[in-house]
Amino acid sequence: MMRIPRIYVVTASIYPLDNLVDLLRNESVEPGKILVIDEGDEKIRERNKEILRRLGLEKIFFYGPGEREEWFKERYGSSYEKYLGLIPERSHAETSFGFLVSYEEGAEIIVEVDDDVYSEHEYSFLKDHLSNLGASKGVRVSSSSSWVNTLDFLDINLNRSEKIFPRGHPYDPSVRDYRYEFIEDSGECILNMGLWTESPDLDAVTILYHGGLEGVSRIRSSKLLVDKVFVDKGSFYAVCSMNTSFKKELVPAFYQLYMRYMGIDRFDDIWSGIFAKKIADELGDNMCLGKPALKHRKRPRSVWKDLRSELEGMIINEKLWRIVSEAEIRSRTYIDAYRELAEYLNKRINEFSEEHHRKFMKTQIEKMILWTEAIDLL
Q1: Residues whose CB falls within 8 Å of the CB of residue 359, separated by 6 or more in sequence, listed in order
Q2: Residue range 310-322: mean pLDDT, rounded
Q3: What gap in Å lies between CA 53 and CA 55, rounded to an integer?
C-alpha cells in the first residue's frame, strides 16, 4: 500500500469556510492539519469551527494576529518583532505564516487553497495534487517567448482567435506572441498549480475589458484540457496560489512577498512563483500545472481597487522577470539559492527606473533574506 505523505492544508480567510467541507467531504486522502490564517474575529471563527466539525477532523488550527505574535515570540524571543514583520496584515500573503508552521512541524506536502475555491466532480482535491507532485506522466511544454499562458490549458468561452492571459502574465507584446513545443514526459514536481473552472484568475484590466465592473468578468472556463503540464526549464508561468501544492523542500524559496505595501498588492504569488521557477530550474526540479481543476466561485469585489493595487506591480513585473531570468544560480539548496537570488536582485535594483519601485523592491529583498534567517532558526 502506498504511503500517504503528511499533508497540511493552508488557507487565509475572513469568511465562512464552507468550501473546505465541499473539498474534503469525499476526499480519500486526509490532511494531517488544516491551518486557517484569519484576523481573529471570534464570531467568524466560531462559525468556521462549527462548519469544519462536519468533516470529523480534529486537527484544525486558527492563527489570527494574536496567535501569530505568540508563535513568533516562542521561537525568536527578543527578536520576534523582526520576524513577525515578514507577515503582512490583512493580506493574502499571510499564507507565508502557514508555510512556516507547516515547515517546522514536518509537513511533507503543503496545499494552499483560497476560500472561494470549491470541488469539481471530475477531480479529487488532495489525491490529484499528490498525483501531479508524484512520478506521473504528462506533457512538457516550452515557449518561444519564455512564458507559458496557463489559460491555454482550459476550455474557455472565447473564440480561439481571441487570446486572454492570466493575472501576472507580462504585457510585453514579444511575450504574448509565442509558439509552443510539446513532448511527452513523466516525473515528479516540486510544485503543482491546479487550474480552475468557472472564473479563471485574471487581472483587473482583463476583467474590466470583459464586462467585470463588479470584479467578475463574463469569461468562464468549463474544463481542463491537459491533466499534467511540465513547464520546461527557461519558461515561466503565472503561479496563482489559490489551488496550489508544493513539497516542503520549496518552503525556504517560496516566501509570499510582502503586499499591501506602498500601494502595491496582488503580486505576492506571481513573483514568488517566478523566483521559485528560476530556482527549481537551476536545481533540476520540475514545476507543473493542471489537475485538480477546481471551481473558482469568485465573489463580487471592487475591480477599481484591484486595478489601483495592480498598476505599479504590472510595471515592476515587466522588468523583474527579465532580471530573474538572467540570474546565474550556483547554490545547490533552495535556501542558499533563494539568498543568492535576493543578493542578485539587490545588485540590479537600480535598473528599476522609478524611485518608488526601487524602494518597494529593496523592502522585498530585505524580507526575502530575513525569511531565510527565520527558516534557519526553526
Answers
A1: 262
A2: 99
A3: 5
Is the separation of the CB atoms in 204 and 301 below 8 Å?
A: no
Spatial distance between the Cα atoms of 337 and 370, rounded to a whole number of angstroms? 14
With contact defined as beta carbons under 8 Å apart, do 204 and 144 qualify?
A: no
CB 298 within 8 A of CB 167: no
Close Cβ partners of 355 (under 8 Å, ≥ 6 residues apart):
none
Residue type, 266: R
What pTM did the predictor assign?
0.98
pLDDT digits (tens, 9 = 90+) for 122-172: 999 999 999 999 999 999 999 999 999 999 999 999 987 889 999 999 999
| Residue whose C-alpha is closest to residue 34's, from 9, 63, 64 | 9
Angle CA 214–215–217, to nearest 5: 100
How far is the C-alpha of 181 from the C-alpha of 158, rounded, in Å? Answer: 23
What is the residue-averaged pLDDT of the chain? 97
One-letter amino acid at 220 equals R
**In angstroms, rounded to a whole number, what is the distance separating the alpha carbons of residues 177 and 165?**
11
Domain residues of the chain, as ranges?
7-377
Which region, left, alpha or beta, applies to residue 209 given φ > 0 means left and ψ of -120 to 50 means alpha? alpha
Task: Report yes or no: 69 and 38 within 8 Å, Cβ to Cβ.
Answer: no
Q: Are 11 and 36 in contact (CB under 8 A)?
A: yes
